[in-house]
Amino acid sequence: MQYKEIGKTGKKVSILGMGTMRLPEVMQGNEKVIDEDKAIAMIRHGIDEGINYIDTAYMYHDGQSEVLVGKALKDGYREKAYIATKSPVWLIQKEEDFDILLNEQLEKLQTDHIDFYLLHALNKERFEDTVLKFNLIEKMEKAKEDGRIGHIGFSFHDDLETFKTIVDATDKWEFCQIQFNYIDTYYQAGIEGLRYAADKGLGVIIMEPLLGGKLANPPQVVLDVLGDAKTPVESALDFVWGNPEVSLLLSGMSTMDHVKDNLVYADRANVGGLTEEDYELYARAKKAHDDLALVPCTKCRYCLPCPSDIDIPRIFAVYNSIAYENEEKARNSYSKIDVGASSCIECRQCEEACPQNIEISQVMKDIAAWY
Ligand code: SF4
Ligand code: SF4
Q1: In which region does residue 76 sit, left (phi positive, over 0), alpha (psi from -120 to 50) or beta (all else)?
Q2: pLDDT of 167-178, one tens digit each?
Q3: 237 contacts 269 by C-beta, under 8 angstroms
Q4: Which of 339, 348, 351, 367 for a ligand 1 pocket mutation test, highest count of atoms within 8 Å of Cβ?
Q5: Ligand 1 atom at minimum distance from 351 CA
Q6: Residue closest to 288 by CA, chosen among 233, 243, 227
Q7: What integer is the mean pLDDT of 206-213?
Q8: Assigned CATH class of 3-282
Q9: Which part of the chain has CATH 3.20.20.100?
Q10: By the 8 A CB rule, do 173 and 132 touch?
């Protein structure tokens, strides 16, 4: 296993972190629950082979992931691994809720301290309406002072501008967690956000290195670019590890084979070693992937806000997923969107802002007709 210091925390973490949101499950009556024996064996095997960063969250597996991690880290494993978990910011309605939730998490994890504590899934709205309103950064500092948490961070899902605002809002952040892979280089924080945060001294943890598992089986045109010297998974992970600003990546492993394969990839990864040629290769793979899209939307979000409150890039992403997955899945995802394409009033103000020159109002009509 290879290790890197995470930001300026002085802690050395394995470049491969164990994500626990996709643990193996079994049926119990009509309910799916974590397959405890398998999940504990996976986590312990990972730690035995050098993984020292276990990532969970209050809401993973309907609240059971933290409980499972607590059990897995008994019998001497707690001393060998850092725990990272996240505060469910959306459940905080008043200042005291922060401590109530944190204490509950400590109990579920069967520990008296959480090494890396994150405010979960920050976006502009949550940051302004909850984090600032209820002084959550000060609450984190107090929890750090009294020893309940070790280091302060946040995970993020919004645009680059919001990311920079949050990074710059306080000098208390020690690390952050962003979505990043060779397809999402310009999505959300993206590569610019990665470099921005690292430049400010933050450790940067990467989630979704496989784009929700999709890069384990990318379209053939992408494989044609990447070649077959490595598996698609190793190619995707190597892209992330190859960026020198990355502290570690999280892989949400579901089987012991995933753990074993990822351990091999982590051992031979060329950490921070991507060359210009490598970046070009991955950029070509991304282009081959993006060219399959029905709408060439890069998710930059310049078109927002829409007066009809349509989340334009989200609708396009769902529509584009027809090309990568299947139509039924796309229809199912579309059905969960509150404001659909048929709400478009054809004002075309979004089209003036779109750097891709997409005829958005026309595509909205096409999507409404498709659905
Ligand atoms: S054209 Fe349609 S999608 Fe674009 S801003 Fe107007 S209402 Fe929204
Ligand atoms: S401005 Fe264009 S490319 Fe950017 S998110 Fe909107 S539709 Fe997509």
Answers
A1: left
A2: 999 999 999 999
A3: yes
A4: 348
A5: 4
A6: 227
A7: 90
A8: alpha beta
A9: 3-282
A10: no
